[in-house]
Amino acid sequence: MGRKEIYTDKAVFMIKCMLGAYVLTAGLLLLLAFLLYRFGLSEKVVSICITAIYIIVTFFAGMLVGKREGKRKFLWGLAMGVLYFAILTVVSLAVNKSVEDVAGNMMTVFFLCAGSGMLGGMLG
Q1: Are 58 and 81 in contact (CB under 8 A)?
Q2: For the chain, which ranges sit under pLDDT 50?
Q3: Is 92 left (phi over 0), alpha (psi -120 to 50) or beta?
Q4: What is the CB neighbour count within 10 angstroms for residue 61?
Q5: Minimal CA–CA distance to 80: which of 109, 48, 111, 113?
Q6: What 8-state DSSP symbol labels residue 71?
Q7: Phi, psi of 7 (to 5 degrees)
Q8: Would you give the distance in Å from CA 117 to the centre of its chain?
Q9: Would you say 93 and 103 are in contact if contact means Cβ atoms under 8 Å apart?
Q10: What is the pLDDT, as a whole number, of residue 69?
Q11: Residues in contact with 75: Cβ distance below 8 Å, sequence separation at least 6, in sequence order
């Protein structure tokens, strides 16, 4: 295989992992919405659960990519965490249409996504 095929395979695998991560995110957020409806959770609990979902999903995405790549696993996991955050930010900005609503805990979520992706990559 040439270099072009190797890079294409890596890009396709990362896209598949990212798609899987967002499907898992959607499923967990639906579960959280059900729990919110059923038990009337407070806003603070819901916020903590959303942050935990981001951490769990980027950890598993980083783990998958790190397991497949084998070398420099922490960088691949970090890339997945940063890519997840970038897509999350773009979607949030598109939905909210203002930076003020999103910018509150943006840096915290960035470091959590990047860190958990990197940790997942190292353990993968």
Answers
A1: yes
A2: none
A3: alpha
A4: 31
A5: 113
A6: S
A7: -65, -35
A8: 8
A9: no
A10: 86
A11: 118, 121
